[in-house]
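Hi R.,

Here's the chain you asked about this morning:
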Amino acid sequence: MASIGRVALNGINAMIESTQTLANFQFDFSIVKVDAPQEFHDLGQRLIPARREMAEDGKLHITARRLGAIFDSLLPQTPQLIKTYGLRASEIARESIQSPPTGLGIFAKQAGLDGASIWAGATSGSGAIQVHLLACMLARMWKGSEATSIWVELLKCRRVEIQTEFDRTGSIDTRTLVAVKQQIDRSDLAEWDASARAWLRVADQCKSLQQKQLLLIIGNLDKQVNSKASVYDSVIKAWVTGLEVMESLLQGCPMVMQSGDIPLALSSWHIYPDLNILDPATKMVHQKDPLVPAPGILTIGLNWHGDTHDKGLQWSLPLAHLRYYGDPVVRTSKITKQGSRLSLDKFGIAVLGCVLGGWDIEDEEIEKVIKWIARISKIVILFCNTHKHAAKGSWLIYLLGCAAELFISSRGFERGLFTQLLTLGRNNRSFIGARS
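And here is the predicted structure, written out as tokens:
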């Protein structure tokens, strides 16, 4: 009996020691790097060394690993989406490298494609890639400070959710438990957001035609992203819904848009399924994306209401961590036909609209006057080239002439976008000064 007691006591001691060892186990799994999926390799090869190192071994990689582990159990499996996104990211990387920026001087080593958050996700596992996709959605809708505050709140709520689950069941994935107890600073989240934001600028420029077409469609929506009241519930729903619907489309299943989550995902991930537009009349928009199977058609109802000033895709959230003190700040963001920022060319179209508005030009005369401006501009610039003393002040007619030529040469969806910008300028004629 004494020997049995000693065996039992030794077993209890061993269990206690093992438990203490596990509790004191401090291995940081976030420094581990996995092999990126083959589809992402072209992107990784085109990153400058500094960005690739940051994505594989730096803070960005650690952030990707920790975020992926914290949110992974919430997310659906989306193998086709991850594969397709890798192919699209690599395609954009190849095309953007063909036109490298020039005249950078001492900044040449820091310039180039910024796909670091994608590569950090790709070398951290599928969950981290999906976290990058969320970063793109937030960067598309929100300013940097707002997106960072959303990340802070998501982490706070998710940590509470994981602790509650652990208290209830007594078990949890080890990787998730370790990740939850590791710190992710606000500055790390801001850097994560900034990298995704930089990628959107590169991808938007590379896929400008498809993005313009998509923005025109989104601009005719009258939808909220979703109706969830809390930041955590709203963001998680938008994220998960976007992942699930996009996975279904890429597997060749036609889908119907039920909420604003889907157009936000489409505009953020640069994947373009064919669209079946309903209301007021059925129209098929063939986006001709070779990465999307032909049966993967998304049906969208536009819900026209006549008044267009509030149209677009809107998202309202109470941001509790935008300020360090005080009550949550309710902020609303919107995607419209014009997007969130204007290029210099588009800005020129809007300025041209201001000039035309100041002249009180009738609608039916607009195109005729624009052609006249283009001709006058050519004559003035030709005269100034041979009479240098007359060149002072000719820059304005040159800019207006460039905008006029751009408008005249536009077709299809681009003409529709330029017409919207022209109208914006005409309705805000005082932007360039009151008429004297």
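One quick note: Residues 344-432 form one domain.

Cheers,
M.
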